[in-house]
Amino acid sequence: MNNKGTKKTPIERALDSIVRKEAGLTKQAKQYQTAGWRKSLEQKIPPRVYENLKLAFCKAFELIFEKGTVLIEKTYSKNEIELDFQIHDYAVELKGGKKELRQLKTSIDRGNFVNMAVSTAEGIGLGVLGVGLPDIVLFLSVILKGTYETALQYGFSYDTPQEKLFILKLLEASMSKGEQWIACNAEVDGFFVPNAVRTETGLKEQLGRTADAFAADMLLAKFVQGIPVAGILGGISNPVYYRRILSYVQLKYRKRYLMQKEETR
After folding, report:
1. Does the pLDDT at position 229 exceed 80?
2. CA atoms within 13 A on the CB side of 142
3. 228, 209 in Cβ contact below 8 A?
4. First to last CA, the chain
5. Average pLDDT over residues 28-35
6. According to the model, what pLDDT value does residue 251 have?
7. Is there a contact between 72 and 138 (Cβ–Cβ < 8 Å)?
8. How many CB atoms lie within 10 A of CB 54?
9. Sign of the CA dihedral with 155 first, then 159, 161, and 165 last
């Protein structure tokens, strides 16, 4: 970091911007309270529905991580994304200005519109038919597609056990609220600090935690989505969740990238 009184670099200013956004998210988490109407409706849902939903998310994550990644990779050009990153990263290395950092972020944001459109279409389509649980595999596939693309666009892999663990922690944090969000966010940030002392979570255990966070937050939406025709209301929630999840995922990958650039300067 620069000494006091010297002008901050574009990377330092970009990191400052992220810190301000994170402060806003922390403030929201501390002030969070479940809406009364939502709590009232969720209390009317049978407990077995929540258990089935959590199990469905667990199975969906396991299925995608074990067999689905290859299929997801067929929906985008991994080599092209990696090449684009190398070009943008070289520009950041060469000039290191605000313009180059903005261009990197712009190219990443562009792909989100397509993924959100897909999430909207499958959510509403299956909602009309009253399909709730089967939609979960498709929904998570779109979420992970966006996450994988973001990882590649910032120069990170996503297929090693450590990176899978990081992704699951990202997704858990993005679906958490209140004090739970604060704790999960701290765990995510622990991955950015070299040699940091952190609680090691096994992949299977973390998968369960992430599935639990998704089931708890999406319980009402997926329950409603299981009702024919009226389920369109639940399906509409898919793009809302996609935007919320990927917004957090992209914020953290950008922070990780910028911190890495700062450490190597």
Report:
1. no
2. 24
3. no
4. 9
5. 83
6. 96
7. no
8. 18
9. positive
- CA dist 156 and 82 (Å) reads 9
Q: Decide: 150 and 253 in contact? Cβ < 8 Å.
A: yes
Amino acid at 189: D
- Residue 46 is given by DSSP the state -
pLDDT of 78-134, one tens digit each?
Answer: 999 999 899 889 888 887 677 888 877 776 666 555 555 444 444 434 333 333 445
Q: How many CA atoms lie within 13 A of 154 on its CB side?
A: 24
- pLDDT value, residue 134: 58
Q: Cα(49)–Cα(172) distance, rounded to whole angstroms? A: 20
Residue 136, Cβ neighbours under 10 Å: how many?
23
Dist. CA 197–CA 200, nearest whole Å: 9
Q: Alpha-carbon distance 32 to 30, whole Å?
A: 6
Contacts of 32 (CB under 8 A, 6+ apart): 177, 178, 181
- Please check whether residue 128 is in contact with residue 228, taking contact to mean a CB–CB distance below 8 angstroms: yes
The residue length of the chain stands at 265
Q: How far is CA 163 from CA 29, 130, 149, 183, 223, in A?
A: 26, 35, 13, 19, 31
Rounded Cα–Cα distance for residues 223 and 124 (Å):
14
Question: Which phi and psi (to 5°) does residue 132 adopt?
Answer: -105, -65
- Report the 10 Å Cβ neighbour count for 265: 10
Q: What is the DSSP letter of 3?
A: P
| Look-up of token digits 């396991």 | 62
| DSSP 8-class letter at 76 | S
pLDDT per position as a tens digit, 180-219: 999 999 999 998 876 554 555 688 899 999 999 988 887 7
